[in-house]
Structures are given as C-alpha cells and as structure tokens.
Design a protein that fits this description.
Elements (H helix, E strand, L loop, with lengths): L1 E2 L22 E2 L5 E7 L3 H12 L4 E4 L11 E2 L7 E2 L5 E2 L5 H8 L4 E3 L4 E5 L2 E2 L2 H25 L18 H8 L1 H4 L8 H6 L6 E4 L3 H8 L4 E3 L4 E6 L4 E5 L2 E10 L3 H5 L4 E3 L4 H9 L5 E7 L11 E5 L8 E4 L6 E7 H9 L2 H16 L1 H5 L4 E3 L22 H6 L5 E3 L12 H19 L41
Parallel strand pairs: 2-12, 3-4, 3-15, 4-12, 9-18, 13-16, 15-22
Antiparallel strand pairs: 1-9, 5-6, 7-11, 8-11, 9-10, 13-14, 14-15, 17-20, 17-21, 18-19, 19-20
Helix pairs in contact: 1-14
Length: about 475
Amino acid sequence: MTFTRRDILAASALLAASRPMSAFAAVTSLPRDADVVVVGAGAAGIAAARKIMAAGRKVVVIEATAQVGGRCQTDTSMFGVPFDRGASRLYNPDINPLAKLARGAGVDIANVASGQKIRIGRRNARAGEAEDFLATLVRANRAIDDHARTVGKIDLPCANLLPKDLVDWAGATEFVLGPAATGRDLKDLSAADQFRALDRDTAAVCRQGLGTLVAKLADTVPVVVSSPVTRIVWSGRELSVETQSGKVVARAIIVTASTGVLNAGKIRFSPDLPKRQVDAFARLPLGSTDRIAIELPGNPLGLGRDDVLIEQSTNNRTATLFANINMSSLCMVDVAGSFGRDLAAQGEGAMVAFAKEWLTKLFGSGAAEAVKRTAVTRWDAAPYALGAMSGALPGAQPMRRVLAEPLGNLFFAGEATHETMWGTVGGAWESGERAAESALRRLSGVKEPATDAEKPARKQRPRPQRVAPAAGDLLGPTGGTRPR
C-alpha cells in the first residue's frame, strides 16, 4: 500500500549533477593574525565567516579536512547523479536561511514530495495496515510530548514513554522515531529535547546537492584546508589557534567542530575549559547514520521515482530504502542507531552484504543479484566528524544552551548548540551567524544582551499531537515532520 502522509517520512531527492565541491572553496595560506578565527568549514563555520566578512572584519576559516562542507558532502562522480553522502535536505524552506541563499548561489531548490511505502514481509502494507501504523506513531509521539509538556524538569528516555501496546508496530515505531530520525536509539534520547525541536513540516532538496550548495556559499570565504587545529589558547592575555602549519593570533575565536571531535579531545584548550562546557560535549553525543548506495539498473524492485520504503520490523536490524533517485538507478539503504553503528564498524563489505540480505528479505533474491556499483559512508570513523547529528542524552537538553555560552572571546557554534533546530543544516547555519554576531559585539565593545543563548523565536504554537520527532538532517535524510 502506498500512502502520502507527510507526517512520517519524506522522500529524498538527489538531482542534477554539478561541479566537484572542491571547486568552490577559496583556499588560502595560513595568516599570522585575524580579527576572528573560525575553526571548521562546515555550515556553521561558513555562516560565521560570511557574517564577519560582511561586517568588514578580517576572518580566516581553518579546516581539518581537504574540503569545505563538514557533514555536507556531495559526490557527483560515482553514480552520475549527485549523491549526498551527508546532509541531504533543508527543513522549513520558507524560513530556512540556506534555502534563500541557494537562489542567489544558482542552486535549484525543490520541495520534497511526500510518499512512502511500508513493507510487510514481501508485500506492501494494505490501506488499513498503513493507517494503523500512522495511528501508532501518533500515540507514541503524543506520549513523549505529554510527558515533556506536563512533568517539567523530570526528563526521561523516549523509550520509557512509549505505549506498551504497540504490538506488531513496535519495531517500526522505535526505528522511525529513533534511529531513522535522529541516529540514536530511543533509550538514549531525551524526551525534553525531542519536544523542544522545531516543527519540520516541509522539506526541500538541492538539485545539485546540499554539499554543493554549502561549498558554493564558501566561494569567497578565506579557508585554509588540510590544517587540523591542535590547540586553542583563550586566556585573557592571548587568543590564538595552533595547527601543524603554524599559529594564528586572533581577537576572537569561533569553534564549530562537532561534539564528537570536541569530546574526543582532538583540540586542546589552554587553559582547560570549564567543566560544564566539557560535560556538554559528552552529554550531546553524535548519533550514527550511514548510507549504503547501490546501483539497481532496470528497476528490479518495481518502485517509483524517489520512493521511500521502510518495513514492519521485529528488531533494530532494519533500514530505510530510497529508490530510483531522480529517475536514476541509484538507490540508498540507510542504517542508523546502535545497529547502524555496529554494522559500519565492520566495514564496507559487511554493509553491502547487509543491504543485499535486507533487499532479498523484502523483494526476493533477484534484488541482490541486480546490484551493480556500490558505495558506503562511515561517518563514525571520519576523524573530524565522528558521527552524524547530535542527540541529547536523557536529562541533557539544557546542555545545548550551555554549549552556546560565550567564554570571554571564545565562542562555540554548530547544530548541537541550537535548542530547536539541532540536527539540521539550517540550525548549524543559524548558530554560526549567532556566534559571529556575538563575536562582532565583543570586538566592538558592545555588551552582550542579557538574554538566553537560544531564543525559541521560531517555535510554533503547540498543537494537539505530532507524528514523528524532530528529525536530523545532518546525515539522516529520513527525518519526518512533527505537527503538534
């Protein structure tokens, strides 16, 4: 049964091919000094640098890898169509800052059409079964929201709040609300964090790839690539950023590295950061979402363009299928959560083997036999990412605000610092602009306004219910929307 409720999953679209993303980065040598040094050339770092440049201040972005984009990376050569290895969608495009910037950058934005299928064994779900699953998701989301709304400061894992009578839909419900949407199992997710997330009722994709868009927006930004930052000095007397290639003296520093990288201690701070900041790194860990891209010529699955499919699973050994991307033979099997993390740790061979096994279970042996070229992502093993999008552990929702607090002239940005748009590229971009504004005020001698680090200005008024949780788009393209 095919149904078109945008309340569960949204189709993923990776459309027309584009130039290599590295062509867009403005690469420069390491300067001796700058008004502001930005650590990391992902969405948050590029946003911060553009804001500082617009104010007429000298800025340099120092990036550990060989390319800009962070967790937004588009491969345009492997399959002949743009393959977003990381983030692939923009939520709420009518207010998303990147959607507006895309038009000026010459990148096409297309709304994602709703439509997905549920597989029960080797058949599609019937109309009544699909409606039953939808109702189950409604009840599960309502239970999480009701607790977060009424209990106040007592935060619990989302898994503890699920109704006990989910029966045949228990596995699919836990997968959709947890791993597929956030990269984390529900037992490791804060109910308060899920409740505060901004509604994501609509989504859009970049026809040339989201990684391509971020790289294009970095076109005029001075970025030094392949220069991992090893140490940041942020004492009152000195601010500097050190790399193996040299040191840059700064008047302000904005760090946009992921919480995974920061928690791993890949960047040393002198003096040591306050304990509350360090605790925030640990309590806002990155979830796991990876992609197994497969080529299936001839459409052996009999699915439509950009179809999305999940199964009535009985355990966490499951995935999301994105079929026939942009009318091509490219399909993607996305794995996530603890199962996805364990699978990716076994390497590419194990990941491809699982994809074939899973497709065989749902469509028969002919599906696996039809697979041609394959590619996988392994973001947990990427040394300067170490995961997908942040997810607050139970009780850790306030840590997002802590992480966004300025420490003198040292600032942190990134999706993990955004209380309502965490896990999204739009949230990362807004956090970078926010940190840049704070840094510019500090450089101008303007006192920081006495307001919360995160203003929920775009939080929509509560509605009676939501169907899917706040979905991360930094790696997981499966995220649903959350009507309330």
